[in-house]
């Protein structure tokens, strides 16, 4: 039977306290937002606008938001973006990684240099806006997808993974008559599925949470994604006078703060629903391209 020394027990206690503190700090804001979104106006005032567990929870805020066509329109836009964007990113990233993994590719070093440069350096806000404008993408959904359609870091991860595959695997496939597309679809993609799942999850979250590009490139409010609408809801001055003013107008039963918190919860639910299905690939996908074998 192994007996722990005093220093080992102290170490374990400290580690557990740190982990518990981190967990509480991560979960507390979510519980606060959910609690506030279920609180009535009277209880909100009585408890000085700080509620974790409401005594008389209400779903009135959610009913009002879900009855708004503005919310549903923005939800459809964000869903379409979060589906099309990651799919195109995975497609181009995988094909690009497979091509750059071929050591016989002419100019391979030059291509890798430019890809690495996009990771280290950014073109800047104004030059990027001018490029989008000159391409005629203002007030187009493609302005939200094209600028981040290729994941340079993910491309390098997949490239390293392909290079670390045993040479006999690809050579035997070629002997059996497999072409480039066949090797990519039947060998590379199945083996790299965990990394692709992790890259796709990161890209999906980036698309779903993004609002600043919509602020820059979209003038038509009917084209706003959900996060842009939520941003306007959380900023009182920008809401005044538009179609969201009626949604945010407080009533006798719920306050404006309750509506805002309910809007935040609506915005995070889709990602929370997707994450459990990709969680098993998450850790493995992050390191599989960095260690040989």
Q: What is the first-to-last residue Cα distance? A: 37 Å
The count of strands amounts to 0
CATH architecture: Orthogonal Bundle
Radius of gyration: 24 Å
Helix amount: 55-70%
- Please report the first level of CATH classification, the CATH class: Mainly Alpha
Shape: globular
H/E series, N to C?
HHHHHHHHHHHHHHH
* Tally of discrete structural domains: 1
Low-confidence stretches: 237-241, 289-293
Structural class: mainly alpha
| CATH T-level fold name | MetI-like fold
| Average pLDDT figure | 82
In words, what does this structure look like?
The protein has 293 residues and is mostly helical. The protein contains 15 helices and no strands. It is globular, with a radius of gyration of 24 Å. The model is unreliable at 237-241 and 289-293 (pLDDT under 50).
Brief write-up:
With 293 residues, the chain is mainly α.
State the main characteristics.
single chain; 293 residues; mainly alpha; MetI-like fold; disordered C terminus; Putative aldouronate transport system permease protein; membrane; transmembrane helix; transmembrane; cell membrane
């Amino acid at each position: 039977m192994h007996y722990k020394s005093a220093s080992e027990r102290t170490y374990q206690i400290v580690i557990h306290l740190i982990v518990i503190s981190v967990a509480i700090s991560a979960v507390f804001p979510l519980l606060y937002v959910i609690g506030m979104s279920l609180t009535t106006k009277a209880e909100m005032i009585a408890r000085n606008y700080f509620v974790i567990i409401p005594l008389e929870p209400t779903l009135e805020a959610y009913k009002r938001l879900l009855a708004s066509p503005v919310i549903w329109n923005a939800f459809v836009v964000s869903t379409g973006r979060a589906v099309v964007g990651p799919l195109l990113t995975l497609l181009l990233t995988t094909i690009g990684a497979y091509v750059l993994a071929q050591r016989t590719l002419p100019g391979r070093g030059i291509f890798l240099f430019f890809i690495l440069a996009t990771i280290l350096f950014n073109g800047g806000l104004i030059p990027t806006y001018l490029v989008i404008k000159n391409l005629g993408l203002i007030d187009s959904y493609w302005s939200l997808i094209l600028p981040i359609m290729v994941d340079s870091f993910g491309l390098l991860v997949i490239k390293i993974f392909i290079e670390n595959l045993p040479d006999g695997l690809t050579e035997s496939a070629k002997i059996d008559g497999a072409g480039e597309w066949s090797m990519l679809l039947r060998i590379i993609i199945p083996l790299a599925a965990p990394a692709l799942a992790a890259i796709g999850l990161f890209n999906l979250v980036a698309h779903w949470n993004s609002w600043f590009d919509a602020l820059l490139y979209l003038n038509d409010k009917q084209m706003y994604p959900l996060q842009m609408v939520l941003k306007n809801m959380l900023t009182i001055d920008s809401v005044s006078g538009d179609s969201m003013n009626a949604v945010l107008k407080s009533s006798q039963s719920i306050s404006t703060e309750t509506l805002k918190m309910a809007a935040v919860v609506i915005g995070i639910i889709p990602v929370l629903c997707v994450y459990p299905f990709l969680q098993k690939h998450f850790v493995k996908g992050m390191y599989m391209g960095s260690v040989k074998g």
